[in-house]
Design goal:
six-stranded parallel β-sheet
Length: about 575
Amino acid sequence: MYTTATAFLEALVEQGITHAFVNLGSDHPGLVEAIAEARANGRAVPTIVTCPNEMVALTIAHGHTQISGQPQAVIIHVECGTQALAGAVHNAAKARIPVLIFAGSSPFTQDGEMLGSRNEFIQWIQDVHDQRGLVRGYMRYDNEIRTGANVKQLVHRAMQFARSDPKGPVYLMAPREVLEAPCEPVSVDMARWQPVTPCALAAQDARFLAERLVKAKRPLIVTSYLGRNPAAVDVLAALCAQVGAGMVESVPSYVNLPHNNPFYLGNYWNNPEQNPDLAAADLVLVVDCDVPWIPIKNTPSEAAEIYHIDIDPLKEQMPLWYIEPHRSFRADAAQALQAIGDAAAALDTDAAALAEKTGHYAARSAARRARVAQEVFAGEGLTIARLMAALREQFDGQTIVMNEGITNYQPVFDHLAPVRAGSMFASGGGSLGWNGGAAIGAKLANPEATVIAVSGDGCYMFTVPSSVHWIARRYATPFLQVVLNNDGWNAPRHSALAVHPDGHASKAADLDLSFTPAPDYGAIAAASGGAASFVVDRESDLATVLGDAFAVLKNERRAVVVEARLG
């Protein structure tokens, strides 16, 4: 029988959605039947991945899309499952991850008037006002499916929003009776349901910016997520060399420029000091960046010209946001930087000035790399620098790192020093617990990759490791989880001391942030997913432990947890 649920599944396939990460419930009999019927008759449906936690389901979709560039689907249970998506909704929205979220809703009949009418007590309790409103503030689009006659049109309209810049999650819901209802097969012309063409930088604006960059003595480009389009990385590298511009990352969530590029000047997060390259710049070009600097800590010179290119230059979902640029442009980063480069090629260039700028930034970049290298030898015991340097030695040409180091974000980026676009990611949001599910998504998107998740100990607990490692074993997506054990939540401690450096918290022995007695992090993964577990607390054991861990990962093809006790 062809039903609304049948048409819905067909629409997912038409969108190129390969996986549906699901947590099914009493609202989904129509979908369960339609999936079984499609399989019995040889019709394509997305690969169904059962996820015993909704937040994990969405983080898997998030990670998959970061690697593949293709949106996926998450199917959850009524309003309870919608709320259980938790902070993963925030992350997908803030990171502009296109994903289709679908939830059932309580049946709207109770006396058996229609197939799917209420037959369980929970269906009264789960009937709430404005289910879509639970997540509307984070969605690019939301709607309710009311008939099979236009279900495909609603799915494709939702995905037009999801896939058009600024991208993001979309939410659809449908009650049981609608999903069960028979309908005529629906056919659509997908050529007429494409995303909106990205904005292009106007020719006169490209020439203007090219002229300013060429004229500037210390031009600097600041970005966070330009590398979400891997092709943009090469375009940025070419432009930096063409006009002699340095590049610094603020809160990067992608590889935006190889760390060995002579124009790469590093990255900053919540650093409590002024970045010298930002201070010295006489022109700052902000490209695809939400927080290019934190004004009370780190700002450009008052004399600097500031220009801004972004897919969302007004930051419409951020109530308080401004950087006061001299001019702002809505444009696709790769196209815009290519257009600026083309315009610059037509200008007269002062070869001596370009050589001076290039030499200056090459020296700054080399000095930075030397400082980072020296950090490996500083201090005593097992440091984050030593751990990451040893981890980097194990990399192959297909290693992907999902970095959720939180207070260690920066040293993880610095010492792993990615040089390949699409090889290192952060969540792009502010809700912790992304890295474990994201690692599974990365492995599903690229099964040949060696996937590593790096997180703090507190962040590891947020990932719901029992669910993550069950899924990793069930769907053969092994990855290496590195837990940075610093005995608690460092981020709240840093925040408190930054605001009250001389307050009572600065003198208190216990801020209620410790994880003592510490959980057995590896045992959680072993119990739920058969993962191997290692603990390392001495630098002298690093090479052996990591070598053994990677051997298990690659030879036994099962997940591994390495708990690194820093100190």
